[in-house]
């Protein structure tokens, strides 16, 4: 009876770990999708294809800050593969740099949120935020 209980517990733990690995990948994909969705109206504003909307800008920056805070914990060693991840193996080869770039993106987003009050400040500040975003993508994302 005790052996059956131990075996059942082991199976449960293994299944939970496997689910958690998939869940981590799913969560980071969802966070990035949300950040990307928030970027579309911001990019349109930068191009002049949409009117300036401070609420959409603030929402995008909040999305970036959230992602930047959560992302470092969403790249454990056991999550290199799974789902449709575009995470480059370089992330785990240079995790400290990856984490530093995420922190810089989060800080740039928070700083911009405090500084952006109108269209002129938006146009000057958002470039730093998007540059930080692009820098991480250039180094740590597999292009499909």
TrEMBL record:
Residues 1-20 form the signal peptide. Pfam families: Cytochrom_C_2. Keywords: Electron transport, Heme, Iron, Metal-binding, Signal, Transport. PROSITE patterns: CYTCII. The keyword Heme applies. It comes from the Bacteria. This is Cytochrome c. It comes from Hohaiivirga grylli.
């Amino acid at each position: 009876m005790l052996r059956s209980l131990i075996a059942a517990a082991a199976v449960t733990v293994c299944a939970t770990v496997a689910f958690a690995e998939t869940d981590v990948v799913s969560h980071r994909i969802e966070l990035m999708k949300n950040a990307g969705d928030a970027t579309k109206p911001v990019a349109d504003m930068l191009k002049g294809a949409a009117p300036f909307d401070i609420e959409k800008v603030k929402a995008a920056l909040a999305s970036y800050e959230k992602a930047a805070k959560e992302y470092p914990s969403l790249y454990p060693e056991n999550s290199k593969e799974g789902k449709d991840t575009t995470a480059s193996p370089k992330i785990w080869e240079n995790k400290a740099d990856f984490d530093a770039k995420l922190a810089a993106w989060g800080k740039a987003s928070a700083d911009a949120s405090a500084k952006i009050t109108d269209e002129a400040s938006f146009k000057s500040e958002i470039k730093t935020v998007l540059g930080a975003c692009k820098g991480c993508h250039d180094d740590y994302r597999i292009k499909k």
